[in-house]
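Exercise 7. Predict the joint structure of the components listed below.
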Amino acid sequence: MSSYQHLIENLIAGQVIVITTDSGDTIGPAQFVTYNNQTGIIILKEFSSLSPSDEVVVTLIASKIESIRYQ
Amino acid sequence: MKIFYINSSYMGIYSHFDLWIKETNSDQIEIIDIPISINQQMFKNMLETIRPVLVLIMIGNKKPNHILKVVKETHIPLVVWFTEDPFYTDVSLEVLPYADYILSIDKSSCEFYTKLGYKNSHYFPLASNEHIFKPLNLEKEIDLLLIGYPYPNRIKLIQSIINSTNYSILLIGKSWNKYLKIPNQKKKNIQMISNWIPPNEVNLFYNKAKIILNPHRQSTFIFNKNSKNVKNRSINNRFFDIVLSGGFQLINEEIDSFVDEENERLTRYVDDLHCIQLIQKYINEFSYKEELVKELRTKIIGKNTFSYRLNTLLKILEYCSGS
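Solution:
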């Protein structure tokens, strides 16, 4: 199992996290929705900070995750 | 008198607007709260059974077809409050034909709608909550505060301030760190909070800041849906929150004054350099700023709550139905 899989294997749907990707970008605070280990895609739900604030679905390549902060 | 209020379904400050509107329930007005996701047939049954005097809905960047269609069928007056005007005018244009009464937070948008033939449009700014936004006797430990999305004009202003001054700055809003270049020696002065913070905490920060920067969103921002480029010129809802909190704010000059031209003119800046000059002029003038804010607050307080807006709306309806 690769290191990023270790990072996400214990996430629970609905858990609020902040992800830092290996490009240095941060995503979140966002809710973890699901992870597909066949495609390596993680799905999150984030609130857009642009008014009017709405839910935005973020799909992310899990192997690009560098760290996860739990809130 | 029963009013149906369609919940905005947006997050952030809108969830509080929804709550504050519901709190306007009184002996005269009963607000019946309807979720935007309500089943179409159930909504129609409710409208036909209860027959509210009006249906009120806030429109931002979405057109809720099922709600608009059903209200139209039942002939109950639909009041549409465009609370993001003119940033999503393309959406507003699609909703306008359904509205019996048009409320817009922006004067330019009202004029735009009137020119299109929609005579029943009224300038109707958003409102605040006086129980939440109020002066607190706190030490002014932050020089400059900006709360909100990092729009390009805001980024440019903050970058200019960082480049040419040593003031402490607190930025609250998502992703500010992505857009600013902060020299190492100034990093200790610049703080950022990337979480959305609720109104009661916002009030705390307003009370701790010497100057609050309130550059308004621009009509040309890339994520707007405003193909007609209607230029906004009316104050945003933060204006009320800041005044009610007793905070001192600086605003870009494209925005019209709201109640007191002479007073508000002193807090308008032409460009980034002028803003910096105003910051230098006012930052330690505590009693002068306090006097200006106090004067403005007296004119704002009591007249810019959701309850006051609802009463104004009823007067508009009464006037229109009588004329």
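Discussion. The radius of gyration of chain B is 21 Å.
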